[in-house]
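[Meeting: bench + compute handoff]

Bench side (C.D.) handed over the final construct sequence. Compute side (W.E.) agreed to return the predicted structure before the next meeting so the bench team could plan truncations. Sequence as handed over:
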Amino acid sequence: MEEIMEIEFRKAEKKDISLIFSFIRELARYEKLSSEVTTDEETLEKYLFGERRYAEIIFAMADNSEAGFVLFYHNFSTFIGKPGIYIEDLYVKPEIRGKGVGKALLSHISQLALERKCGRVEWSVLNWNPARQFYESIGAKIMDEWIVYRLNEIAINNLATNSNI
């Protein structure tokens, strides 16, 4: 594996919204989920850089250009009594994969987790994603005893407005 010698990190700023949206669309294409992207730059800006920021984004910089990004937010574990970091998106440009950028992003998030006294870092991976082998090689464990459930916006609305469900 050819390693990129120098990877730097920078926090996303409001002016990066087009780049962020571009990365999100690239990730959706890779995951074969393009039809699931219903947001736009204005909405992202509101929730990522508005009065209340719901998530953080860090870019991995290689050769003075954005090679990948990670979008994450804090959750909380009642069992360990500590905050955690949940990685919603981690994406590395296809032409840069295999050169250490993904590992560097995860290492950077782990450093943040230590600084912020977090008890865990978690993320979800599609079952066909070849990155699963990489994640296991760095010590990540499959939580196969847990099944993810999700309410989409329609289900949220139904549940919130109809207590007879």
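W.E. noted at the follow-up: The domain at 7-161 is CATH 3.40.630.30 (Aminopeptidase). C.D. will use this when planning the next construct.
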